[in-house]
Amino acid sequence: KDLRPLALQNTCVKWISTTIMLQVMDALQQIIPPEQKGFLPGRQMVDHLVFARAEWDRLPEQAMVAIDFQKAYDSVSFALMECTLLFLGLGVEYVRLLLSVMSAPILFCVGRSFEPTVVLHPRSGIRQGDPLSPLLFDVITVLLIYDIKSLKIELVLLLYADDILFCVLGRGSKQDKDLRAALYRLGIFGYFSGLKVNASKTYAVVKVREGEASPSTLAGVVVKPHVKYLGSLLGNVSEEKAYAPAIAKMMARARAMAALPLGLMEKSFLFASWVAPVCYLTARAYRPTEHVCSQLDLVHRTALGLTNWNLTMPILLLPPSEGGLGQASLSAYAQWAHSHAFVTYVLRPGRFAEQHSGPFRRWAAAQGLLMEEEFLPYLQLGPVPLSRPSFLQGCLKAYSVTRRWGGGVPPPPEHR
Predict the structure, then answer these.
(1) How confident is the model at residue 409 (pLDDT cuts 50, 70, 90)?
(2) Count of CB atoms situated within 10 Å of the CB of 245
(3) How deeply is 305 buried, as exposed, middle or buried, from its count of CB atoms within 10 A (0-12, 13-18, 19+)?
(4) Is 184 a residue whose pLDDT tops 50?
(5) What is the number of domains present in the chain?
(6) N or C: at which end does the chain have fewer Cβ atoms within 10 angstroms?
(7) 1 within domain boundaries
(8) InterPro entries, from UniProt (predicted)?
(9) Do residues 260 and 225 both lie within one domain?
């Protein structure tokens, strides 16, 4: 059951798939609900991460459940795919063309051999690597999103392709009842779509009042101190713990990279493209503390084989024309990524107001600043250019410094 054959497609098939994908992308992008962020232009997974983190900090009582599917791409039912595409309004002939591409005979490499040895006729599943596959999987989840949203429960649904997160509000029996209703609908969806929930990798984290004990299970789902969603930890975690998975992965890559027979300049290019991006999403959602920065810089030193950090910094920062690498430290990269996320929110003030107006008001009240209701429309609409500071923007800047957004790394000019 763990066999993962490698599918081979010729150039003609890929050209056909790409052509179809480009034709239907604009239409399907308008149909697919905003809860689904997977592989769609203008939608980023970091939006879900920042939203989930902000909701966890904002609400006193809630639970988050990370859902894992068993071999999601390999299990999608062609019958449900056809019904969904027709339900969304695509023409019958167009749907037949899509299904003919996905169900056409295909060569597979099985085992360790890279020579095509097996011809299979797929009966279900979408091929990973096919340009159409991510879009078709997003289409399949449309029915699930509409079905769960039709329930009269306090639950927020976040999806990035097959990665699902339930944010269940409330507490006690109501929370358990709402989650059971959502899981029941998810089970019905799995019956028709072929997607099966992997119970052994599905966990929940529950936020309770101070002094209360967290339950061991919630609606049959095992409760843990935190859950992993899109590579980041959510729940009762500190910044250091949130960065731990990314740092461990980067350190493993750094040690492998240090053993390669490469020059310092070659290693710096490899580090920037292979190691540093691992922490990008985590850095956008979690502020890198001083301890995290020291660990990130240790990863950087290990990868380049430079043990003396006092000498490493000048070498990194100097331009190549002066004998340096022209590369900022990994800690500075993480701080820039976090500040860039904050600046992005300011450029889209409606989203900033939605998620941070509550903490901002509490901070403003503590500073003795009177924030009347009429200020919020200005914050939401953002009529004042960022290049011309105002009282409200000054408050936002002070608020960002207080919460240590940005970490002292200025954003690039286009994001100021």
Answers:
(1) very low
(2) 16
(3) middle
(4) yes
(5) 2
(6) N
(7) no
(8) DNA/RNA_pol_sf, RT_dom
(9) no
